[in-house]
Amino acid sequence: MTDLTAPIYINGSQRDPGGWIDSIDPATGKAFAKVARGTAADIDAAVAAASAAQPAWDALGPARRGELLQKLADALGANEAELARIEAQDAGKPVFEAVDDVQTAAAYFRFYGEAVDKFYNDKIPLEGGFGLTDRIPHGVTGHITPWNYPVMLLARTVAPALAMGNAVILKPAEETSLSSVYTARLATQVGFPDGVFNVVPGLGEEAGAALSGHPGIDHISFTGSREVGKLIMHASADVMRPLTLELGGKSPSVVFDDVDVELIAPKLRTALLWNNGQTCNAQSRILVSKKVHGHLLEALEAEFSKLEIAPGLEDKDLASLVSKQQYERVASYIEIGRAEGQRIVTGGRRPKHLDQGYFLEPTIFDVTDPGSRIANEEIFGPVLSVARFEDEEQAIRVANGTPFDLAAAVWTQDIDRAFRVAGQLRAGQVYVNNWSIGTGVNLPFGGIRNSGFGREKGIAALAEYSALKTTVVRVTGGVGGR
Ligand code: NAP
Ligand code: MG
């Protein structure tokens, strides 16, 4: 039977905490699972276990570590159906999306498992000797993850950290901790040494703050809001430790008048509505040439209004938002848009057939004021703002005009314009005539300015989860540094 508890998981075994938190099923608003309320003492215990386990894990070498990561990828694959159903209910997403999350999580463990023994460094010739560079693990790494893609985002940071020889401590979001403990248990089952992969669920202000302020943590990776990111950065300064911050965005698509509107409308829809808009790089704004503005709005309205909304386990197009808090946040932004006088093209209400749970219709605003809050602030839900532009220069200026720089796209059939605009869009990832193919595990990803810093994904993450060390050797009588 599926285990619907997320206990503390330290040193390869689970332990009951001092207290439990109810985990709410967002399709009903009712408790359906129990999550440990980890404390600072639990974090101390996890740090002790990870510190003890890390040297032997490092000494195992990249090839052996890589094999274990690939075994964990296999185990995630073998348990895909069960884990996806847990995730669908816990996070409130259609099963097909949760399956994609589990497959992507497995892909991260496989990618870093296969890559790590091919990630080697340089020999630098010197007069009278040579230098060698090497990548060494930070030691014990802390990982704080959000609720939107629980299993996928844990894999995104934990897989490269483990691959490089770090021992990890993960604090998942309190709303969605089940898949994190599930994955750590699988790691033990496939042969990871005890203490290498620890999970301490709990509240952000308790377990999260204890982890981010702990002097025994050598690197911290945080994925979540800008506000909490700042707290993590302050805490890291106090203990003098490097960190990676993956924060939010207000990512635009810039659509020119030479596109095939009917062809791209479904892609623009999915670019926002995958996971109900609760995606850090969701395309939450469209800037469209005034010449095709009306046509695009009609096409998007048709795309949005045909979607079926149902509890995640019923596996329709869209499910609920993750929590009451998130539902209220998104609903309040819809009210802000109305109060600002922006026109609702479609959506804006709770679906009539769903009277419990945290469901909202996908919503499009036709935005006439580029300074409006709904066009500039991160909503993190199924709310799209569409604004028109006069020319290329204005489009780029508005696209770059929010404090965030996570992702952006340009849609045009003119190849010069495509590269010209892509070159001027300020973002960590830029897409040309696509959005969703940017989700591959091999593409470096991360923000600029308020969207954070450091890079996840791709080979770049192996560098992020290690420190560069240079060794200099003198060779008496050597020739050409040899
Ligand atoms: P959040 O409140 O920042 O929470 C993220 C994580 O931080 C959770 O595990 C949370 O624990 C923990 N936390 C909260 N307060 C803490 C503290 N004082 N010290 C240490 N940890 C603490 O974010 P959210 O509201 O859950 O998620 C939505 C936000 O995340 C959005 O802004 C979105 O853009 C961003 N996000 C970014 C990415 C990316 O890759 N760039 C991906 C996903 C989400 P609790 O669960 O107990 O609160
Ligand atoms: Mg939170």
Ligand kinds: NADP nicotinamide-adenine-dinucleotide phosphate, magnesium ion
Low-pLDDT windows of residues: none
Given the C-alpha coordinates, what overall shape results? globular
**Helical residue percent band:** 25-40%
Beta-strand segment tally: 23
Sheet bearing the most strands, described?
7 strands, mixed
Radius of gyration of CA atoms, rounded to a whole number? 23 Å
How many helical stretches? Answer: 14
Strand order of the largest sheet: 15-16-17-14-13-19-20
Instruction: Calculate the terminal CA-CA distance, rounded to whole Å.
Output: 62 Å
- Percentage of β-strand residues: 15-25%
Mean pLDDT: 96
**Helical/strand content category:** alpha/beta
Outline the structure in words:
- This protein is α/β, with parallel strands linked by helices and 482 residues long.
- Helix content is 38%, strand content 22%.
- The protein contains 14 helices and 23 strands.
- The strands form 6 sheets. The protein has a 7-stranded mixed beta sheet with strand order 15-16-17-14-13-19-20, sandwiched between helices.
- The structure holds NADP nicotinamide-adenine-dinucleotide phosphate and magnesium ion.
- Magnesium ion (MG) binds next to loops.
- Magnesium ion binds next to loops.
Summarize the structure.
The protein has 482 residues and is of the alpha/beta class. It contains 14 helices and 23 strands.
